[in-house]
Structure formats: C-alpha cells, structure tokens
Amino acid sequence: MKNRILVGAVALVSTFALGGCGLGSGSEASGSKKVTIWLMKDSVSADFLKRFTKAYKDEHPSIELDFKFQSWSGIGPKVIGALKGKDTPDVIEVGNTQVAQYAESGGLRDLTLESVRDLGSEDWLPGLAEPGSIDGMQYGIPWYAANRVVIYNKDLFEQAGIKNPPKTRDEWIADSQLLNSDGNQGIYLAGQNWYVLAGFIWDEGGELADEKSGQWAGALDSPAALRGMSFYKELQALGDGPKDADEEKPPQADVFAEGNVAQIISVPGTVAQIEKKNPELKGKLGYFPIPGKTAKAPGSVFTGGSDLIVPDKADQRAEGIEVIKALAGRKWQEELARTMSYVPNKPELARVIVGQEGTAAMARGATQGRATPNSPQWADVEADNPIKPYMTAVLEGGDPQQEAKSASAKITSKLAGG
Question: d(Cα 305, Cα 372) in Å, to the nearest integer?
Fold first, then answer.
C-alpha cells in the first residue's frame, strides 16, 4: 500500500544475494528449478529467510529459492513492468491495498482454488483477504498484517485512578476526560489522522467510498460517516493535537516522549522510538485495542500489510504457488509472528504471540480490520488526499455536512480518473 504503517519507504532498491549468504544458490543446479521471489526491504529478517530456505530446500530438493529485496519507493511501475513480462519474478510481495491496481493490468494469476482448497481462506483476516479479492477472484494471498492500537502511559493512568484500559467508546471518552487535566493531555490525536477516522466511520456502518454498478463515489457525507467524524472531533478535543496537520507533523512519538501525554494511536513499534527519545518511559507504557462502540469487540481499524501475488508471465508459476502456500500456511505464519511480531493471516494463529503485549493488542484489534476502498484508483486519492483538509475544516468549526459533501465530490472525481 502507498502509506505503509509497517515499514517506511526507503530510497534505494537493494538486491539480497542469497547465494553469498548460504540461503540459495543463485543459479539453477542440474535438474533444478529456480523460483525468484521479490520481497520488500525490511519485511522479514535474514534469520527468518535462512530458516525458511533451509526447510523448504529439505522438503523440495529440486527447488532453488532466489529472494530479491525491493524498495517501496517507486515499486508500482516496477511491478507493472514485471506483470507485462519485464524481468518477471515468480512471486511478488505487494501492499494489500495495491492488489486492485495490479489486477487491473490483467497480469495476475487467479489463486482462488488454492485459497479455498489449500489455505483455508474463509478464516483469513478480512483486512488482508478483501483487498486481494477482485470480482470474486482471489489474486492476493494474505501474508502478514499490522494495525494501530492505543499506546498509553501507565503512570498517568494510575494517577488518574484508572485501573483498567477502556473497552468501549464511552469509557474511552470518560477516561480521556479524566486524563486531560493537571497539565497533561488526555490523548494526542493530530487533526488529519485519516486512517483513525476511517475506523470510526466503519464502526458507524459508513464507508470512505461506495461502489455501485462498477462506479465509485465518495461517501463522507453519509449520516454514518458524519457520526464517525463527530466522534473523532470529540476525542481529538481531549488533547492539544494540531487540527491542521497529520501525526508526522510533528512526529507524535516525539510529543508522547515528553511525558505529559496519556495516549496516542499508533502501531506498537512506535514504543521503541518513544523510549529512545525518553529512556525514563521504558517499562511504563502499555497497549490496548482501539475501543469499539460496545465491549463485545474492539473498534474497526485499518489493516496494513502484505499479500503475495503470482504474475501470469512467471516462468515457474506452479512452483511459485507452492512457495506461497508454505509462506502463508500455518507453520511459517506462526514463525513469522514469533520472529517479526506481525499479526498472522488468521486470528487463531495469533495465540503463538506470548509475552508481546503490543503485538497481542494489535492482533485483537486486527479481528475488526478493514482496508481502504478496493479501487485501482485509490492511490490517486491518497496522493492528494481530500480527507485531510476535510477533517481540518470540521475541527476548525466548518459545517460537517457541507465539508463532507465537497470532499466526497473530490474523491468521486479521483476514483473516476479525474
């Protein structure tokens, strides 16, 4: 996806020469087949790949795995070129929200049969599975996920007399009001954190955009979406987050590290940045899923992550599919969760996450995961995102209905290619 929540974009494409590291031969041995796999830089560790490669070689002695690492920066045109037959690999890791764009090119292998027969697709996290399914055909196989949780300062919660993290929106507001006193911010929520807004809209039964008869239209002006924005405004007011900027301006981790902010909404990995900035907070931070409207389930969240695809023009399509079946199957999903602290593609597999409070909270939230509208043009919306100024306008006192209608019209135009 264009705005990753897992790994920041990097500037250079790098190729990991596995043969030099003992993870693959880099050339086809007599009678063997080489499967080329594009993975994104920093997606997995060298140790994970070393173990996977050895185990796969033991079970498939005639297969050589050749992993090549790519950068998120500029990956779109490179994948499109590969799908058209230019240096085409056999498997490609892509952002879950990018699948629709690549499927539109007509160069993807339909993996529906393998999804149902071999991988138990009915149990996949919806936020990963749905973006990989286009017109009823599964082109993207869910690999791993991550999503936002609430990171909180345990000392400030204790000082406010809050013994347990909130489980409902009403409890969350009440607790944040208590915390927003004595020079402390109840929550630091930037005004343009539109991924968080999306979750609130989904909780209300709304959408960012709707599809009817193949045509997409912005939907921020629906009653449900307006209720989601209203809750965002109520929560955002319980702190000093800027109304006209997103969570990176300034970086919310830096603000939280000052020690007088009770909560932020981010991925668990943000804690490492906070503790580096302020070592005194080490061991004093906790996590909980974004609360839902009731205690029955956490709130909806945007699920970021990766899917695995197979180009139609790949030389080793069948062998590539077998590699995907291994990577997306139970054994290596559990290994990936333990090694990388990712959320696996099925909720039941998250039980292997032991002693990782942040990842466990993320996994609970992932059960309510969603993805952005499954349109090939959604990347155009994010490139010049009309949701952000809409949020600022409402937070600064603008008429919600009027501002939402204007932003929805801009989304509709972008999704129509305008």
Answer: 12
82 and 161 in a single domain? The answer is no
> Is the residue at 1 inside a domain?
no
The structure tokens listed for 45 are: 């560790």
Residue 26 has pLDDT above 60, yes or no: no
* All residues at 6 or more sequence positions from 254 whose CB lies less than 8 Å from its CB, including other chains: 277
Structural domain range at position 317 = 18-147+304-370
Distance CA 109, CA 375 (A): 19
> Which tokens belong to 73?
């920066």
Residue 69 pairs in a beta bridge with: 39
Q: From the CB of residue 347, how many other CB atoms can be counted at a distance below 10 Å?
A: 16
Residue 342 placed within a domain: yes
Are 60 and 321 in contact by the 8 Å Cβ rule? The answer is no
DSSP-derived pairing of the beta strands 149-153 and 263-266: antiparallel
What number is the average pLDDT over the span 47-54? 96
N-terminal to C-terminal alpha carbon distance within the chain:
21
- Cα 17 to Cα 128: distance, rounded to the nearest angstrom: 29
What's the CA gap between 407 and 409, in Å, rounded? Answer: 5
Strand pairing class (215-218; 209-212):
antiparallel
**Residue 7 belongs to a domain:** no
- Residue ranges of E strands in 30-130: 33-40, 63-70, 91-95
Helices (H), 260-354: 270-277, 317-327, 330-340
Per residue in 208-243, pLDDT (tens digit) is: 999 988 899 999 999 999 999 999 999 999 999 999
pLDDT surpassing 50 at residue 9:
no
Of 360, 365, 305, whose CA–CA distance to 148 is shortest? 365
Contact at 8 Å (CB) between 22 and 64? no
Q: Are strands 304-309 and 91-95 parallel, antiparallel or unpaired?
A: antiparallel
Same domain, 345 and 390: no
The domain that holds 354 is classified in CATH as 3.40.190.10
Q: Between the CA of residue 10 and those of 22, 59, 75, 92, 255, what are the distances in Å?
A: 26, 34, 11, 18, 24
Q: What is the dihedral of CA 343, 347, 349, 351, to 10 degrees?
A: 90
How many domains in the chain? Answer: 2
Residue 176 inside a domain? The answer is yes
**Residues with Cβ < 8 Å from 90, sequence gap 6 or more?**
35, 36, 37, 310, 311, 314, 315, 316, 317, 319, 320, 323
